[in-house]
Amino acid sequence: MSVTEEKTTPKWFKDAVVYQIYPRSFLDTNGDGIGDLNGITEKLDYLNDGTPNSLGIDAIWITPLYPSPQYDFGYDVMDYRGVDPQYGTMEDFDRLLREAHKRGIRIIMDMVPNHTSHLHPWFLESRSSKDNPKRDWYIWRPRPKGRKYPNNWLGIFGGRAWEWDNKTKEYYYHTSVPEQPDLNWRNPQVREAILSDMAFWLDKGVDGYRLDVINWTMKDKELKDNPHCIGRRPYDMQRHLYDKDQQEAVDVAKAMRELTDRYKDKILVGEVALDHSDPREAARYLGENGDGLHATFNFSFTYSRFGAERFKAEVSAWEEAVGKRGWPTYVLSNHDEIRHISRYAKGRWTIPRARVLAAMLLTLRGTPFLYYGEEIGMRNLWPKRSEILDPLGKRYWPFHPGRDGERTPMQWNGSKNAGFSTGEPWLRVHPNFRKINVDIQDKDPNSLLNLYRRLIWIRKENSALREGSYKEYPNSPTGIFSFFRQTHEQHLFTALNFTKERKSFTIDQANAGKAKIIFSEPEFGTKSLDAKGFEIPPYGILILEM
Length: 546
Ligand code: NOJ
What we know:
Layout: H1 3-6, H2 11-15, E1 18-21, H3 37-42, H4 44-47, E2 59-62, H5 90-102, E3 106-111, H6 121-126, E4 140-141, E5 162-165, E6 170-173, H7 188-204, E7 208-211, H8 248-260, E8 267-270, H9 279-283, E9 295-296, H10 300-303, H11 308-322, E10 329-331, H12 340-343, H13 350-363, E11 367-371, H14 391-396, H15 438-443, H16 448-461, H17 463-467, E12 469-472, E13 480-486, E14 491-497, E15 503-506, E16 516-521, E17 533-536, E18 541-545
Parallel strand pairs: 1-2, 1-11, 2-3, 3-7, 7-8, 8-9, 10-11
Antiparallel strand pairs: 4-6, 5-6, 12-13, 13-14, 14-18, 15-17, 16-18
Residues 72, 75, 112, 176, 212-213, 271, 335-336 line the site of 1-deoxynojirimycin (NOJ).
C-alpha cells in the first residue's frame, strides 16, 4: 500500500452513519436493570438487517464497556482489556462483534486515554509509595511552600483538580472527579501501555476508536497557572491555556494513528473539546499531512441556536477548517448534552423541527453520528434532585442538572419499563414511553423512525450524499438552508426550511427546471412554481437531483 493510500480515511467510514450506544441504557437481557452486550446483539437487526425495514446504520460506537466502579459511568476504567461484568463477558463481546460484522456493522470502541479509575492497578501501584516504578505514571506534586495547591487548576466537575493523598503526602491531579486520576502522558511507558491496550481490541477485530478528551492528554510542562477570565462556573472563570490543548497532544494522536495504520481500515475519531470549540483547534488533531486522527467530533450543533443561518455558519466554519485536510462529522445529540429534540422543542413544531434536523444531519458532507433513541425522538428526562446519579449533576444541581436526562433507557415498546428491562431500571424510564417507542413508530409510515430509515437508505443509494463535495447555495431566502452535493456522476440539491412559514425560492442553475425529486416532505410530488422555482412548506425538506 502506498503512503498516500495509507493516509486517507477508509471509505467505509466516509460512507457510514454511526449509531452511538450507551450500553447501560440500550437493552437489559438479564433483568438486573442495566443494559448489556447481549442486549445490543439482540437488536442488531433493528439497527441494520440489510433492508430498508431497518435503520440501516453502518457502525456502532459503544461508550466504555470496560470494568469500572462507575463513578463516571464507565469513563473511569479499571482494566482496558476487560468487559464489565454488569455488561456481560468477553464471550458476549466476541459474539457481538461476530454478529455485527456478519451484518456489515462495524464496531467502534471508546478509548479513555487521559485518565483511569483510581482503582486501576496502575494507580494503586502509583499511589502505594513515592518510589514505586509507576509513581510517575500519574501527575504527583508536593504541597508547594507558601501556597496550598501546586497551581490554580480546577476540576471540570467542580472543586480543585488536586487531591491530597495522605499516605504519600502529595497531591495527584484529576481533570474530572477525584476517582479519575490523570495519566502522565509525558512518561513514555504510559504511551506504550495505552497503545498496547488499544492493540488488544484491534487484534480482536474492532474497527476503530472514539477517543475520549484526547485534547486533555498533555498539560503544560511547568504546570503554569491558568489566567482568569469572566465566566459563570468557577471552571469557566479560567482560560484553560495550560491544563489542556497543548500541541504535544497532537503527537499523542499521531502515535495512535501510527498504531492503527498497522492494521487495515481502522478509524480514529477524537473528542477534542468539551467547551465551545474553534473548529481550527479540532482540525489540528488531523495532522498537517493527514497523519493524525481520521476525524474529530464536530459538536457545534449541540451549542447552536435553532435556525438556518446559525447551522449554515457552523457548517461553513467546519468545512473550511477540516474540508481539505480531513473529513467532517456531525452530531446533534450525545450522552453529554440535552437531547436535541428537547433542546429545540417548540410546542407543535417540535416534531417538524426534529424531522428537518434529521434531514440536515443525513444530507451534509461528513459522517453523521446518531445517539440511541434520537431516531424515535426520545426526550430528555428532568430528574428530581434525589434521583441524580451523574457526578456533574450532583455537584452543580440545579445550575446544571447533570447528564442523566439524556441517558434514560431506550424506549422499545409500551410494556413495563418500555421493554428495556424486566428488573428495576438503573435510571427512570421517561414517562412518555407509552406514546414514544419503537413499536408504535415501526408501524406508522409517517413516524420519525421511518423518516430516519428512509433518509439513511436514500444516503446509501446516492453517492453524492455520501461522498460529494459540499457547496452552500447562496441565494436561498432567510430561514432556508440549501446546498449542493456533487460527485462526477451525481449532482444533488438539498433545501431545508427551518421556519414555520412557507417559502419560495429559485434555483439559479441551468438544469434546475428538469430536476427530479429524490425526497420531499411534506410530499409535493413534482410540483414546482415554474421551471426553476420551488415552494417549500414550513419545516419542509426537499432533495433534488439536478
Ligand atoms: C467525555 C465524556 O464524553 C464524558 O461523558 C466524560 O464524563 C468525560 N469525557 C470524562 O471522561
